[in-house]
Structures are given as C-alpha cells and as structure tokens.
Structures
1.
Amino acid sequence: MAAPVALDQELELRIDSLAYGGNGVARLDGFVLFVRRGLPGDLVRARVTKVKKNHAEALTVDVLEPGPVRVDAPCAHYPACGGCRFQDLAYEAQIAAKEDQVRDALQRIGGLGELPLEPIVPADSHFHYRNKLEYSFTQAPEGPAPGLHRAGRWDEVLPIEQCWLTTDLGNAIRNAVRDWAREERLTAYDQKTHEGFLRHLVVREGRNTGQALVVLVTAPGKLPDEEHFVEVLRRFPEVRSIHWAVNDRPAEVTRDLPTRLLYGEDAIEEELCGLRFRVSPNAFLQTNTSMAERLYELAAEYAQLTGGETVYDLYCGTGTIALTLARNALTVWGVEFSEEAVACAIDNAALNGIANAAFFAGDVARSLEDLQARAGDPDVVVVDPPRAGLSNRAVRHLGRLAPRRIVYVSCNPTTLAGNVKELTTEWGYTLERVRPVDMFPHTPHVEAVALLTRGEA
Ligand SMILES: C[S@@+](CC[C@H](N)C(=O)[O-])C[C@H]1O[C@@H](n2cnc3c(N)ncnc32)[C@H](O)[C@@H]1O
C-alpha cells in the first residue's frame, strides 16, 4: 500500500503520544507520522518532511489546539535553539514519558514481563542544572556572538543572550567574553571558509565549590591584549582557571588541543558525594552535579556494600563511582579506555586520601581476564558504559566472571534492555531492581540504574 501522505503536504493531526527521542506520534488511518514539536493531545497543522513506506515525518507549523500537557516555554531562544527539546512539555509529563521509555524498552527488547521498576527520580532543579556549557562562535551583525546550535542544524549557530540550563554566573561569563570580543574587533571562525579567529568558549563550574574554569578556543593566531581578556574574566571572583586552546584543524572540537594556561590553577575542583574531584579542561564529569550525586547514591544503594567486597567499576571515567564506593568496600578496581581519565582517577584517589582503589587503562572486554588475575573475583561489578552499551564480548566476559551483583548505570534504555536480556537468559541473572533518573530536564535523555543478581534469594 502506498503511503497516504506526500512530501510537503500540510495536514491536521491529533498527537496521541510521544516517541522515544521526543517526536509526537499521530496516526492517519493507521499510518504513523512522527511529528516534531507535537505534544500529546495537541491538534496541530504539520508539514510532511519525509515519507517512508511504513511511516512519515512531519514538522508542526501551527498548534491549533494545545493539549493538556503543553505549557509556556520560559526561554526566549526556544524552540529555535537545539539545547532543549521539551521546554513546552509540563515537567510531570516529561518524566512520565521517560519512565515509560525505560519500561517499554525492558519489556519489548528485554523480553521481561513483570518489571521491578521503581518510580523515576525527578530532577531537583528543572533549570540552571548544567555545570558545563560549550558555545560556538558565530558572526552576528553586531560582531562575534557565542551561541548554541540551532535545533536540527549542525551548521548554524544561534547567538545566546540567556540560557536557562546554565547559571546566572555562566550567562554573565559568556556575555562578558562576547563584549570583550566585540571591543577587540575580533571575528568568529567560519566553518565553510575557514576564516576568522574565535571558535568555541567552554565554561565549567564546580557547583558545590563555587569555582569556575574558562577555555577560549581559537584558530591559530595571536590573542590580542591577553591581559585585558584575563582582567575581564577576573571580574568574576569564581573564575579560578583561564585557558586558551588553539584548533588548527577543520574538526569542531574543544578537547585535547594544544592549550596554554593564561591565569590561575590548571584545574578547578568539584565536590560530589562529599569527595573532591579535579576538573581540568578535558576531564569528563557528569554535567548535572546534584543529579550525579543522586545517581551515585542509587548505585551505592544497589551495590549493598558491607565493607568486605571486591568491587570492579567498569567504564570508570575519572573514578567518581569507584571512589564513592571505596569507603564501603575492601578494594575497588576501575577500568577505563581513556588514559587521561585514568590519570585523573588516580589523582582523585590521592586528593581524597583513598588507598583501596586502583585504576587501569584499557578496553573493558579485553582487560577483564587480566584484572581478575590481579584483583581476584569480584563480588560486585558496576558498569557505566557509553550509549552503545556493553558489547557482546563484554557481556560474555562479565557472565563468566559471575559476580553476585551487577549494578548497571545506563544512559540508553535500549542498549540496557538488550544487555539485560542477554544477562538474564544466557547467564542466569535476575533483574531485581531498576530505577530511571532524570538528569537532563527538557531533553529526551534518560539515565537508569539496574540491579542484576545471581544466586541470591
Ligand atoms: C558514561 S561514561 C561513565 C564515566 C563515569 N562512570 C562517570 O560517571 O563519570 C563512559 C566511559 O566509558 C569509557 N569507555 C568507552 N568505551 C570503553 C571501553 N570499550 N573500555 C573501557 N572504557 C570505555 C569512556 O571513555 C567514558 O569515560
């Protein structure tokens, strides 16, 4: 049967629900349309943007009747800005949708019937929660402007006056750098022509320490009046660390570039779960500090440590989970791909006087046998993989290790569900608890913590 819609056709559609990723779902005589910026209950006029055999995509051009969960978005840049997707969806509806996504993935992909699903942990702040923002510069008529990518566009930047995901301090620092750049008559780098100087601005804040770090990324060239740049930023007493990084390649990156410290310490610190962590320009840290604390507390609750356990923290990043667990374990062993992150984890252990944690650089699937030979059998294994989840090989090695408890921290319910299926059907584990956590309000992202046990009553 041919699709009952054509490209560019405008249709009136009633949105039934929200699909994973954030598009509204509407049906036309059973044919499914995914409608961008359509919310459950809305009657919208939408233009068809893509037609496939079994479904089509459309973009809302007008909301004819708002549904019951539609609210006013507070940010003047919404919906043009790509930073937020759901500012106009009531928060209760956002978290209900995220909880449904975790349930649905575990039932459909994980093949699990009755689920030990606990209610989603809502975010404690709906706005101003990010501890890091990366801006790209664009050339506005008034001069260079730091901004964020336009929704759905990787080649267009929207100048930002006030972002609701960062703090007043973060907004003030960005605007001060913008004013400095205009005063100095600098130009924004153009990705197409490769001309211009200013490329990115990164602002990081230790939310529990009140310290801030700034990285200005430019094309090769001279930073004019460096002292004045530092002076502008030092007007903010929170700014403890100012870096200048140079990117001479076309790739739009802000990390691992040749970097010069212009002022202060080379890193700031953040406090999580009562421990201090170093935040250097390249260090990975969860971007919502207070919800990262909730996530780690939940992982600790699921791990049920009593002080005598050998714990592995796989995909350990800079050691945040391992170090928060070390207080209640015999030993903790972290494995992580990035050598730089492992170096940070070792520094973080020393910074907190923790002597029962060790960290190794390597691929998880390839390192587990060596780790077992060195560390002994684990009682508890925590995994916090990237969005792709655990590879088949990593699941096999984990299954052979046979820890009593696996605590799975996931940023992607789909891959969590696939891995849970394998661990329950092939390796004798039972999914005992699972709890979604909302770390990123107004975005489609959802985290979840799951506890899998083996041989326990
Ligand atoms: C979601 S982060 C978790 C970091 C840390 N647990 C935290 O909360 O800050 C995933 C980490 O896995 C690392 N990684 C990705 N693939 C890996 C692999 N195959 N082996 C080891 N580490 C890997 C990444 O470098 C990243 O630091």
Note: The longest strand covers residues 55-65.
2.
Amino acid sequence: MPELPELQALAEGLDAALAGRVVTGVRAHHPATLKTAEPPLEALTGQPVERVWRRGKLIGLDVAGGLHVVIHLMQAGRLSLAPSPSGRPARTASLDIDLEGERALRLRELSSTRRASVHVLDDAGLAAHRPLTRLGPEPIGLGVEDWRAALGGDGAVLHTALRDGRRVAGIGRAYASDIMWAARLAPFTRAGSLDDDALARLVRAADAVLTQALERARGRITTEMPNKEARVTAVHGHHGEPCLRCGTRLEHVAFNEYDLVYCPACQTGGRIYRDRRMSRFLD
Ligand SMILES: [Zn+2]
C-alpha cells in the first residue's frame, strides 16, 4: 500500500499534469466506490481542476466552483493519468474523470473487495470530512514535542501508534518498520515508554526515512504508481536478507496478521522473538 512518500509524489505529478485542465465527464463504474450523492458527480463536468493535493493517505482534487474530490486508495486502489479509455470498462475500473486533451484520471482497484472510496464534497463538506478532520499532523518536519503529544503516553505498541493516522498522518506498515529500524528501536517498544533519547532518535529517523523516501519517489512517480518496485525499504519485506547497516540477518515476527521485520543486532540487543504467537497479544 502506498504511504506518504509515494502518495505525495503522485499528488505532485498529478497536480503538474492536471491543474487548469477542464473536466469533460465523470463515470463511476462500481457502485461501492462513490460514497456521496450530493453534490452530484456531474457537477464536476465543465469545471477546471485547480489543484491536486495529499493529506495523510488521502488524495484530493480541488475543482472550480468550490468542489472537491477526496480519494482514499486503501490497499488495492490505483490512481493514474491515462489516455481516455474506449470500449467497455475493465473489471478493475472504479471511476474515470475525463479531462480535455483525451486524458482521464483513472481509479482502478486490483481486488474484488472494493475498499477504495471517492467523496465529492463542497467547501463545507470538505471542512467537515471526518477522515481529514481526524488526521494527526504530518510527520516530516514535526518537532519533538509535537511528536510526544501525537504519540501519547499510553501503552500502544509504537509500530501501531506510528500507523495510526489520528496520531500522525501518512505512515503505514512499511515506513513504520523502516523508521523503527533507523531509530534502533525494538519491534514491540511502547509509544508511552520512550525516554528523551529514544524519542529524539525516533523523530530524526522519521524525518530522514520519509524525506529520503519522498526524494526517491519524486524520481520515479509522476502520474502513475509503479506496480512492482525495486527495494525501496530498508527492512520491510526483506526478512532473511542482510541488514543494510550491519549485515546481520533480518528477522521477522508475526504481528497483526503481517510480518514485522527487524534487525536483532541494531534493534533488540541480539534478542530474536521465537514465540511468534505471543506477539498477537501485545497490540
Ligand atoms: Zn543491523
């Protein structure tokens, strides 16, 4: 699933390509995708796109006339600018926004469970849109005290807290693992147990990991998200491979139905979590 760096690069690429282009038509291909009835989808037709933006993991289009399209791609949604489609829509098609110049902003979903969503909102609707109003601060450039406040003092597992968009926006499982590796924090560290030194390491790591990932993403993503990518994460998805910092074999432990990858030398003082069932009770 794309996270802050990839979605930010995509929003910037789409903004450069779409700003000023007039919407010539909108077609919803799947009933589950469009979550709003008012303003109607047709209200977008004839209006120029003003801006494409990202907040958290949401992509937004501001359209003239005080209209906004907010897109949540979820796990399997894909958004790209493509030549206007002809013929019957593909099975993966969710929504097309046709633009002048025979281009279309296409939302597809590569999964039979349709979770991606599109909301068409007016100014008041955007201001009250809960997925946006509930988002925590953006992590890049966020100060230590803002991080402390965002994470809270509770007993949540840090990896879970990092992925909770209401605490801090835009981080998913891939960058949460990479940030914890970069900060040399153990997989089940508690958000509320970080001392000043650990918190400072976390803040520096989050900034560095996300900033570097954003720079890389800008180099390869413009108006389409690549399906397969070379290694762009340091540890996420790479258990069994050598740690990029010390060469130790990366280990993994089951956590909330996925693998949390860590370096025993860098993060746990050599400890390897053998009882993988235990980790299920820790979230
Ligand atoms: Zn290491």
Note: The domain at 4-133 is CATH 3.20.190.10 (N-terminal domain of MutM-like DNA repair proteins).
